[in-house]
Structure prediction request, 73 residues.
Amino acid sequence: SGVTLAHNLETPEAVDFAFALALSAGAKRVKTPEKVFWGGYSGYFADPDGHLWELAHNPFSPLDENGHMVLPD
Prediction:
């Protein structure tokens, strides 16, 4: 579709949980979550409409108490 939506999570375990939840709701597995070359953890699924989603944990980009990515000033 030319666009991938991404959702960053607190831990690799949270990625696995969200991935399993998406599959149970009808998503199609594209890439099972795994450690990636840059030091993070991610996987991809397509939702029932065909939109591609990435679920990721980036240990180099912490999330705040509300789960939002903290960007440098």
Summary: The mean pLDDT is 92. The first helix runs from residue 12 to 24. DSSP finds one helix and four strands in the chain.
